[in-house]
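re: that complex we talked abt at group meeting.

here r the seqs, copy pasted straight from the sheet so there may be weird spacing, ignore it
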Amino acid sequence: MNNNSRRRILIANRLHRNMVLIVLAAVIVPASIVSIALYSLIFSITAWQIGFPEQIAMTLLPALKQVNFAVIGALPICIVLILIWSMVVSHRILGPVERLSREVEEISSGKKSGPIRLREKDALYELAENINKLIK
Amino acid sequence: MIKKNNNNRRGFFLLLLIFFVLILPALVFSVEISKEFSFNEAGSLKEWKEKVFRGKVLYVIEAEGPELDGEKILLAQSNRTCSGLFYEVKFHPDNRPMISWKWKVTKFPKRRDVKVTESEWIEQDDFAARFYVIFPKFPFTKTKSLEYVWDEKLPKGTIMRSPFFKNIMLFVIRSGMGKTGEWIFEERDVYEDYKLAFGRTPESSVGAIAIMTDSDNTLSTAEACYDEIKVGYEKNE
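got the structure back, here u go
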């Protein structure tokens, strides 16, 4: 396996998928709850402040439609951005994990003897260095 | 034994706290009241919130002429303006469905004849006198309103969906200029009117009433008086 393997989008299949889902849920669920609550609250309070039904229909309903259009337009873009971000975050964590696991397995099976190489900024870099000291 | 007593005391205080924080406010806010407005004092309008949309309508408490022995009433004068008075109230029409008021129109806005289905209606949406009963619901798009109007053109008994929004139903309960300058007493059963208007019983309590005299769309003038508003009482009370 060469160094290009780190560039794969999905690394450890199920683990990576789960992590992406966790990150997605951790961002989307609270954001949705807060947004929906704020959205409903702001419009309801404004409607109550306006009071008169015709005026609500003339002013607030068009505003609501505009906001809905904007949300519908922006939502897919936001979801794609969050998905990309969750892939990047999970990749940063799981990439080194997968590589460390693979290299330890290769060393233990005798396929490889050299040190495990991780980037200095990688998560688990210190663990890899300690394993290297151990197998020297 | 002492520990048990402390636990009991803690439990008691916890219950007391729950009562004051959660139950008491709920009880206070759930109390339904009937309310009367006689506009007898100069400060009677303090309870009402004025909502201004296109210039202020003059809402003032004034003494009436000899026919009411100088009694004070609410006078509304609109000169190409649109604003209304709004009062938050709470009663469920299941138990206390009745509302009543007196009104008198002295000047109608100059409306052209328009078909109710036309968008032109919106441009002519001025009434000398209207009385709203609002049933708020969350989200606000589910809020329903009954709007009782005195119209100089539409026949009495007309019930129509407002061209503005499907949840506003207009009841023409007084028609024509024949009784211009006369006090008219109105009494409505909002429970029955709601059923008639929306084909089902009210899903929520009445949350507000409102009155409006306006002439901003027709660029004319309108004048009406309101008095003895009573809301949220039982039939035959």
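couple things i noticed - The first helix of chain A runs from residue 14 to 50. The mean pLDDT of chain A is 84.
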